[in-house]
Amino acid sequence: MEQLKDLDSLNLREKKKYDGVPEDREPKPFCCLSDASEAEVYYAVLEGGTVAERATLRKARAFTLSLFDKKGFEVFRLEKRADFWGSKLEIFDASRVLLGSVRGPRDHFQALDAKKQVLYDIEGASAHPELFSIRRGKVTLGKISKRPTRIAEEGVSRNDHFGIVFPLAAELSEKAVLLGALFLIDLLF
Question: At 134, which CATH number?
Fold first, then answer.
């Protein structure tokens, strides 16, 4: 989790083969988070098996993802549940301590801390449906946006994914919650 402290941005990537994952690892990651240099940082694994398509996750009312680092240690756990707000994703650390949650309909999300206090509003722009501003009040501090991949991967169905630029002063737990927002937005769009 400490590695996240030094990162200012991450990109979701789907690849046929992951550099830091042994060939025989089960379950296999369905995507990874890479840094600005395209180096793989975290791997996302669906609890309970593999995913045939991202569409399966998009339609699912509930699922659990685990994020692992390159050494194979679980760093975060993301649990999606449907609720009154539309979608809600809770983010836990490796010890299953709640760090916060993300909730909202498709165009306006709120990133909440463990005490359900609003950390950030994440709003989509009507003119640019693939760009979300991370705001505190009226001030934009970061963004989540669709990014084309630089390297074409053979056998991968999607070429673009969402990436995040974290607010400069975001604390470690806030970055973890914003990673949850990144996954939720990527899966919804």
Answer: 2.40.160.200
Question: Taking a C-beta distance cutoff of 8 angstroms, is the pair 135, 109 a contact?
Answer: no
C-alpha angle 62-46-103 in degrees, rounded to nearest 5: 40
Q: Report H helices in 25-140.
A: 54-59
For residue 60, CA distances in Å to 74, 143, 188 come to 23, 25, 10
Instruction: 135-138: list long-range contacts, CB under 8 Å, 24+ apart.
Output: 136/167
CA atoms within 13 A of residue 56's CA, in its CB half-sphere: 9
The pairing of strands 31-34 and 139-148 is: unpaired
**pLDDT at site 154:** 44
Cα 3 to Cα 21: distance, rounded to the nearest angstrom? 18
> Do β-strands 131-136 and 139-148 pair in parallel, antiparallel, or remain unpaired?
antiparallel
Question: pLDDT digits over 153-183, tens only?
Answer: 544 455 568 899 999 999 999 999 999 999 9
User: Which residues span the domain enclosing 132?
Assistant: 2-188
What's the total number of domains in the chain?
Answer: 1
Look at residues 65, 105, 109, 95 and name the one whose alpha carbon lies nearest to residue 173.
95
